[in-house]
Amino acid sequence: MKKSLLLLLLSFVLILAACNQQSGSEESSKNEEKSESASSESTEESKDETAGDSGEKAEVTFWHAMNDDHEKWLKEKTDEFNKDNENIEVKLVNQGSYDDLSKKLLAAGKAKKLPTISQAYGEWILNYKDNDLVEDLKPMIDGENGFENYEDINKVFREDNTFGEEVLGLPFNKSTRVLFVNNDLLKEAGVEAPKTWEELKTAAEKMTTEKDGKKVVGMGFENGLAHEISMWIKQAGGEFIDEEKQQVKFNSEEGLKALEYIDGMLNDGTARMAGEDEYLSGPFTNGDVGMYIGSSAGIAYVQKDAKDIDWTTVPLPKGEEEAAPFQGTNITMFKTAEDAAKQGAFEYMKFLISEENTTDWAKTTGYLPVRTTALESDEWKKFVEENPAHKAGVSQYDNGFIEERVPGAFAMKEAIAKELDKMLFEDAEPKETLENMEKEAQKAIDEAK
């Protein structure tokens, strides 16, 4: 049974707040901030989105939250598309940040004046689906002018947009978590970049030292650890949530192992939280932290600030299993658009993630190519050879996962964060923390059903 529109609107607000905190990464901070003046256009823009009688230009409205160089790239490519497709005109509407985008979508949904397409996380799309607002793209993908070689889109991104038998989006700006390492500190400690949890612990111990009159801590954890905890539990060999049954599964031997591992490093002083620094890219580029796990989309920011250190990224260290979370938005299409606008939007969506464009997007912004042919292209291989920090992220595709999509996703994460913070900052025991996390997370899911 469909939820009421009020519940949908509330879900949008809550889930967007979680996305704005996403593991403290640059992807969710620097790419989402600013742009109050980006656009005051909202629901009015969607009035012009559809084509009228046969032969008229199909007008497609795309709401997005890309800023700075990301928006510049998007504008250039959209101009190119419009020039080459005289019967389609795509109008970009920058809504500032993801939070701004959320609020505009709420207003548009209430007024039944949604744009043709918009950026959206998988959790958002779940709520759109429950309220019958999003278009199933599968008939278009399989149709006469469909998506040539849809299987070329990497599996982890196809799964993020697949809901039962329906395909409700195409991937756009995607990133993963990688381990940033200070090669200078590794060398001084006499260790190599860690490949396992045990090696990570050992490297952190040896890298924690006094250097030039200040303390260097080996490993750093972002403040928003609740948005990464599924990664640690899956690496420990455990299960996070049963998406189909909407049931929490992390209160397990593996879940306890993950919490004890993190808690142990914090207690012995070989790891620290970001704390007042807010994001670990600062302490890392200052040489105060030897290693930290962050978004691959943050590579460009580290490159800009790390002037005096030799650094790189490496794949996430392995526990019992290899597991790398993939994050970022998709582009979804709303049912309220007319057929001509939908067809035009589909052509544009395909264009944005063509082999050529997804490669160029990744090179320009630091996000990841979403197609296998792009990863295998000479252009991308040459780029990675010249910029080796980008190699780690794409090496994790085979072990990638998208976090389970459940009702009340934000409330669930808030509940986990509240209990996890008691362990991180108030000395609560891992076992007690895990039990409380399970209880409160399941309660949040059940209340949102």
UniProtKB/TrEMBL annotation:
UniProt keyword list: Signal, Transport
Pfam families associated with the record: SBP_bac_8
Family annotation (PANTHER family): MALTOSE-BINDING PERIPLASMIC PROTEIN (PTHR30061), MALTOSE_MALTODEXTRIN-BINDING PERIPLASMIC PROTEIN (PTHR30061:SF50)
Compositionally biased region (Basic and acidic residues): 27-36, 44-57
SUPFAM superfamilies on file: Periplasmic binding protein-like II (SSF53850)
Protein name: Carbohydrate ABC transporter substrate-binding protein (CUT1 family)
Recorded superkingdom: Bacteria
Xref: PROSITE patterns: PROKAR_LIPOPROTEIN (PS51257)
GO MF assignments: maltose binding
Naturally occurring in which organism (per UniProt): Abyssicoccus albus
Region described as Disordered: 22-57, 429-449
Biological processes, Gene Ontology terms: maltodextrin transmembrane transport; maltose transport
Keyword Signal: yes
GO cellular component, one term: ATP-binding cassette (ABC) transporter complex, substrate-binding subunit-containing
Family statement drawn from the similarity comment of this UniProt entry: Belongs to the bacterial solute-binding protein 1 family.
Signal peptide range in chain numbering: 1-17
